[in-house]
Each structure stands twice: as C-alpha cells, then as structure tokens.
C-alpha cells in the first residue's frame, strides 16, 4: 500500500479547517483542559499553536503530571470529579479508567473520522484500547521492548548478526559470557523490571489470564517456557542478579560492555545516542525480539489519547485527538520526543524510515500483543516479577513458581470474579 | 454557666479543626478497614462489600505481612539503640570542655537531618555501589572482599539502617546536647569532691539527669522508626527479595499503588496498635526505673 501523498493530507487538513471554522463561528471560545505526563507535556506545547490557528475558537490549557504521581492523581481527580477534557493515558491504565466509567466511547467518532483509520494503526496497539469491545482511546505513541546489543562484542564472540530464535540467543549469550569473562555479563535483566519477562511470555497464543480475566493462567507452557529461559540466563551466569537501582547508570555500563544485550524500550535510542561517546556510536544496534523458533512477539505498551466522558467539550477534544494523530504532526512529535508513532503511514515518512536504530521497532510493531485488559493487570505483572525474582534468587523452586503465581493472582482477582458473577455479561 | 460557654467557645476553633481533620478521618479509615473498598468501589459504591474482620484476618495469615513486620522490627530493634547511642555519644563529645569548633561540628552533624533524603539516597547508592563504591574500595584496601550492600538480601537492611541512623542521629543529638547543657555544674563539682571518676560521674550524674529526655527521645525515635518507608522506597524499592519491605511500605503499596483502601486501612490500624503497645511498654519500663 502506498502511503498517501503529502498534498492529500494538506487538502484534508484544509477541508477540516473550513469545517472547523464554520462550526466554531459565533460560539464562545472553548477552553480545553489537557493532561499529559512527563516529557510529552513539555514538548506538546510546540505542536499546539498550529491547532489553535486552525481552530480559532479553541484554546488548550496543558497540565503536566509526573509519571510517578499520575496514577494517583487521575484516580483522585475521578473521585473529586475534576478530570480534564482529554488526557494522555498509559494504555495499561485504560481498562482501569474505563471500568470507572470515566472514558468516552470513541467507536462512532473513529468510524466516521477522515484522519483516524483503524487499518493504518498496528493491530496490537489498537487492541489495547478496546475494552470489552468498546474503543476507549486512540493510540498516540507506542512503547514496546526490543533488544539493544553491542555489535562489536557480539562479533568478537563470533557472531555477525543478532539472535533470531531463543536457541541462537542462548548460544550467543554463552559465547559472549565466555569472551567477556567473570566481571562482565552477556545480558541485563534488571530484577525489578517486569517488562523483559513479560515480553518473553507473549510468544504463544496464551493470554496470561484465563477465563475472561477471572484467574491466572501462568501454568500455561508459553509462560513456563519463558520463565525457564529467563531463569536459565541467571543460572548460567549470563545475567547478573541485580535490580536497576544497583546499576548506577545503564548507559555508561552498556558503553563499558558490562552487558552486551539489553531488553529495553524506544526512549533508549535517544539516550544511547546522547550518552555514549562518539567512538562507541558505531558499536550498538537494535534488533527485534526473537521468539522460541523465529521472530518473536513483544508487548504493546505506550500511551493513548482519551476523551473524558464528563467533558463538556468532547467535539473540540476529539478535534485535538485527530490533530495529534496526523502523520505530519506525529513525525514532528517523534523528532521532539523519540516516541514511536502507532501508524504505518507515519513510519513511511522519511525521517523515520531512514533511521537505522528505529528499524527494529518498525519490524517489531507488526508483532506486538496486548496484555489482559483488566484493572488489576499492573498489580498482577508486578507479582509475576516478584515471583521471578524469588526463583532467580533460589527462594522458590522453578517448578513451583507457576502454581504459586496462579494462587496469588487468583486471590487478587477475587473481587473481579464477584463483580462479573453479579452482572450478566 | 457563662464561663463554661466561654471556655467551650475558646476551645471550639481548635476542636473543630482537630475533629474535622483528625478524628473524623481516623473514624472513616477505621470504618473503611472493615470493607473491601477498592478501585471498583470508587467507580460505584454498589461494589463495596462489608467484610467484617476479613482484612485483618487475611493480613495476619499473609506471609508478606509477617515478612514486612519482621523487617520493620529488625529495623527498629537495631536502629533505635544505634541511633540514640550515636546521638548521645556525639552530644557528649560536643559538650566536652575539650571540644574545639563546637558550633561547626554541631552544624555539620546536624546537617544530614535537613538534607533531602532523595538527594542523599543517590549519593549513598554510589557510596555503596558494589563495584565503584567508596565503601567497598575502602574495604578492599583493608583486604576485605567486596560486599553487595544493596543487592544481597542479608546486607540490604543493615545498609538501610546505616543510612537511617546517619540521617537521623543529629536531631536527637541536638535535643540531648541541650539537656546536657542544662545539667547544673554543681552536681559535677560535688561528685568530684566526693571523689567520683569520669565513669562514675557519667553513670550517677549525667545519665539520671538525662533520664526524662532520653525516654522521650526513645519513644519518639521508636515511633518514627516503626514508620520506616522513605529510605527503602528511594534506595531499594523494598527489594531485594522484599528484604527491606516494611509495614508502612506494604500499606503504601496496597493503598496508593493498588488502591485497596480497605486493606491499607487495616494495615494502618495494625501498625498503630503495634506502635501504641511498644510505646506503652517503653513508658512503663521508664516509669519502673523512675525516670519518666
């Protein structure tokens, strides 16, 4: 499929502008309250003047929430009826806010939108916004995990390409460990980060939760296989049993070759470019995550744009969502933040298509899988990591871990089972 | 009668504030601890269930709660005496007539109290870094193998205790220093006339005079140390293997991370009962020794 030409976009925008101008004429200026988190909040103000120029009746007021406090802030704002008109939302939080009834359903708007077309979005990431069949958000940027690796060390260990299957990955890790010796390692799996193990667990058709999110499904072979692979890396000394609070600076350590493989997300492209010395810049590369027998899946994280159900300016809020979803705007947004766009047509633009480090992400995005859309998910995945840490440190035998995890997760889901049992769905 | 009305109206502003911002929230939290208030209940109160004592019973059966309690007690039992001992030692040194540049050292030793814990934690994480930390480099100079201070479940809590003691001892030191300076000189003079040595002076004059202040400082420090949270939160996130996970951390996780306010309230009241019992015990001990 050829991406639509730029002038077509321009024409569509001009059309939208005329419509918008007609709709807004003679009305009171609308003040849109827009909540954003972290770095995105800092740069989005540079994208807004164009939106306000096209929509003279609309003014956007931005409020920045720090990521660490955002979750509490959103829930207290919901309790206090103080949510904004639209909001950036981490997509694992969408089910939670949807459960609260805080999010406007977007199916009708997305269905009739000229800008937002579902088939242009990566399927895995679009699906994270569909809660019980209802569309609650529009993907804004994608976060998934891939491999960062040191080309030079891998070459010294005798391999000229990144791993394409778990067997190959294990062989490469063994060779790298033999090459670097006892003081350095083949891979870094920080023990307090659940994302690497989660990404490894998404390689089958398993859902991680069974029975419509009523019970844990961690005894599924796809998970036990992932856990075995993860734990083996520690048992063989390929990975250090460390949490990321113990690594003072992952970028420096990567530059020093403390580890050769690192499973991480898109923001690290910019960080490694900025933080590694110039002579190291040719030595690192990214690669899609391998699966047990070939190209693997990874998690579909990232942020969505949501419209708040109680907003009095939903039409204007939707216009802003559409504007921020335009490929040209997303391209600028990518240049400012490094965040990866969720649309194939944005990826076809030159600045993204020609970026060698981003290529692995483009490939991986075709194979991202959403995690279960239940409000308890964040807690469940934290528990998964705690059990994994106990296995790695020898506190729980690996054979007992899946049953133990299922038991803990079932206890967390008790309330949800009760709720689902009450209302016939 | 009018004096009674006048008295109540004078007390009313304070009582209203205390009632509205302390007693009422405490009562609500207590009621909450008998429900399963959570995210779903936030969405609609129809999803709220009265569960009686279930939160409490489940907590008392949860291995994680006992682990958190064990860690907290470990921290209190080791941390409080260390902290007060260090405060007292520093106060005695500062109070000594031989001390030079007293004002400078008083300020320097008090400085950790007023520094930001988050900033301190970053420095400490470097100091205790397994490979680059000065602590391990110092040990290496003495021929001792490096210790994985923050990554080994056996060493993580001692490291947290060191941080907490260093961070907090200055506060008690200032209080004890003031108490030391308030001891009348005459007591020491008469003790010396009676032929008391340095050690006897300390045991029979200094310690008894410090008694009430020491017991106050102990109770306050203990109550504070039971509420261990910020140090592991910024240093280790409760890890490794939950070895630095405290009762208050458990409450924070349940309440503010997972929004299980029913369970979190139950933890709060269990912790309250524990601190109350421990303070009462300490107070009785002090009274039996006649120093409070």
Compute the number of helices of chain A: 21
Unreliable residue runs of chain A: none
Number of domains of chain A: 2
CATH homologous superfamily classification of the largest domain in chain A: Periplasmic binding protein-like II
Strand order of the largest sheet of chain A: 2-1-3-14-6
Index terms:
heterodimer, A: 425 residues, alpha/beta, D-Maltodextrin-Binding Protein, domain 2, 2 domains, five-stranded mixed β-sheet, 21 helices, 14% strand, B: 292 residues, mainly alpha, MetI-like fold, 76% helix, globular
Give an overview of the whole structure.
- The complex is a heterodimer of chains A (425) and B (292).
- Chain A is 46% helix and 14% strand.
- Chain A is of the alpha/beta class.
- In chain A, the strands form 5 sheets. Chain A has a 5-stranded mixed β-sheet with strand order 2-1-3-14-6.
- The model of chain B has no long low-confidence stretch (mean pLDDT 92).
- Helix content of chain B is 76%, strand content 0%.
- Chain B is globular.
- Chain B has 13 helices and no strands.
- In chain B, helix 4 runs antiparallel to helix 10 and helix 12 runs antiparallel to helix 13.
- Chain B has 292 residues and is an all-alpha fold.
- At the A-B interface, helix 4, helix 19 and helix 21 of A face helix 2 of B.
Q: Summarize this, please?
A:
The complex is a heterodimer of chains A (425) and B (292). In chain A, 46% of the residues lie in helices and 14% in strands.
What is the topology?
The complex is a heterodimer of chains A (425) and B (292).
Chain A: H1 6-24, E1 30-37, H2 38-44, H3 48-54, E2 58-65, H4 67-79, E3 86-90, H5 94-99, H6 107-112, H7 123-127, E4 130-131, E5 134-135, E6 138-143, E7 146-150, H8 151-156, H9 166-180, E8 187-188, H10 195-201, E9 209-210, E10 215-216, H11 221-235, H12 250-256, E11 261-264, H13 267-275, E12 284-287, E13 298-299, E14 301-307, H14 314-325, H15 327-337, H16 344-347, H17 350-353, H18 359-365, E15 368-369, H19 377-392, H20 401-412, H21 414-422
Helix pairs in contact in A: 19-20
Chain B: H1 2-32, H2 39-43, H3 54-61, H4 63-95, H5 102-114, H6 117-127, H7 134-141, H8 153-182, H9 185-193, H10 198-226, H11 230-235, H12 247-257, H13 261-288
């Amino acid at each position: 499929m050829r991406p639509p030409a730029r002038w077509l976009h321009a024409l569509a925008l001009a059309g939208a502008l005329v419509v918008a101008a007609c709709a807004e004429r003679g009305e009171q200026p609308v003040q849109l309250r827009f909540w954003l988190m972290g770095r995105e909040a800092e740069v989005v103000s540079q994208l807004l003047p164009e939106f306000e120029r096209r929509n003279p009746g609309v003014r956007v007021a931005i409020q920045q929430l720090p990521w660490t406090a955002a979750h509490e802030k959103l829930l207290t704002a919901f309790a206090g009826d103080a949510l904004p008109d639209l909001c950036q939302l981490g997509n694992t939080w969408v089910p939670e806010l949807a459960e609260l009834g805080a999010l406007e359903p977007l199916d009708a708007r997305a269905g009739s939108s000229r800008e937002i077309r579902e088939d242009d979005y990566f399927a895995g990431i679009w699906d994270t916004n569909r809660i019980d069949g209802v569309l609650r958000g529009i993907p804004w940027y994608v976060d998934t995990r891939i491999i960062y690796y040191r080309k030079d060390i891998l070459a010294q260990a005798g391999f000229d390409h990144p791993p394409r299957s778990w067997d190959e990955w294990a062989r490469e890790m063994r060779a790298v460990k033999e090459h670097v010796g006892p003081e350095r390692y083949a891979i870094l799996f920080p023990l307090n980060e659940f994302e690497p193990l989660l990404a490894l667990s998404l390689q089958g058709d398993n859902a991680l939760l069974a029975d419509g999110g009523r019970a844990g499904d961690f005894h599924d072979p796809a998970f036990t296989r992932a856990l075995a692979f993860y734990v083996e890396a520690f048992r063989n000394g390929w990975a250090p049993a460390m949490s990321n609070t113990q690594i003072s600076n992952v970028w420096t350590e990567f530059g020093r070759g403390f580890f050769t493989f690192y499973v991480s997300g898109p923001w690290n492209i910019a960080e490694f470019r900025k933080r590694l010395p110039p002579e190291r810049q040719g030595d690192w590369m990214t690669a899609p995550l391998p699966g047990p027998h070939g190209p693997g899946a990874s998690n579909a994280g990232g942020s969505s744009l949501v419209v708040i159900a109680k907003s009095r300016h939903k039409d204007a809020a939707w216009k802003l969502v559409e504007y921020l979803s335009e490929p040209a705007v997303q391209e600028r947004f990518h240049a400012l933040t490094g965040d990866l766009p969720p649309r194939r047509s944005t990826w076809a633009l030159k600045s993204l298509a020609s970026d060698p480090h981003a290529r692995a992400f483009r490939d991986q995005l075709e194979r991202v899988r959403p995690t279960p859309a239940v409000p308890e998910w964040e807690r469940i995945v934290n528990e998964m990591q705690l059990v994994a840490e106990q296995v790695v440190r020898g506190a729980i035998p690996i054979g007992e871990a899946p049953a133990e995890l299922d038991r803990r997760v079932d206890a967390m889901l008790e309330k949800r089972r009760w709720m689902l049992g009450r209302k016939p769905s | 009668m009018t004096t009674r009305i006048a008295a109540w109206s004078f007390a009313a502003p304070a009582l209203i504030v205390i009632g509205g911002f302390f007693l009422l929230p405490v009562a609500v939290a207590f009621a909450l601890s008998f429900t399963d208030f959570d995210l779903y209940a936030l969405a609609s109160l129809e999803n709220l269930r009265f569960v009686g004592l279930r939160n409490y019973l489940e907590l008392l059966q949860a291995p994680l709660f006992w682990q958190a309690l064990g860690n907290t007690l470990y921290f209190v039992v080791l941390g409080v005496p260390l902290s007060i001992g260090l405060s007292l030692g520093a106060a005695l040194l500062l109070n000594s007539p031989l001390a030079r540049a007293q004002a400078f050292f008083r300020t320097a030793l008090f400085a950790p109290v007023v520094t930001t814990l988050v900033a301190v934690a970053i420095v400490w994480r470097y100091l205790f870094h397994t490979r680059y930390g000065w602590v391990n480099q110092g040990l290496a100079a003495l021929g001792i193998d490096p210790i994985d201070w923050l990554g080994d479940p056996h060493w993580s809590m001692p490291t947290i205790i060191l941080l907490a003691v260093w961070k907090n001892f200055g506060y008690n030191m200032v209080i004890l220093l003031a108490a030391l300076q308030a001891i009348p000189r005459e007591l020491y003079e008469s003790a010396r006339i009676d032929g008391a040595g340095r050690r006897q002076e300390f045991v029979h004059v200094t310690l008894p005079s410090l008694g009430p202040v020491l017991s106050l400082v102990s109770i306050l420090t203990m109550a504070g140390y039971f509420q261990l949270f910020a140090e592991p939160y910024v240093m280790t996130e409760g890890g490794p293997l939950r070895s630095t996970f405290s009762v208050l951390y458990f409450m924070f996780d349940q309440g503010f991370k997972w929004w299980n306010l029913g369970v979190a309230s139950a933890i709060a009241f269990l912790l309250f009962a524990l601190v109350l019992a421990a303070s009462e015990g300490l107070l009785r001990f002090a009274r039996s020794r006649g120093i409070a």
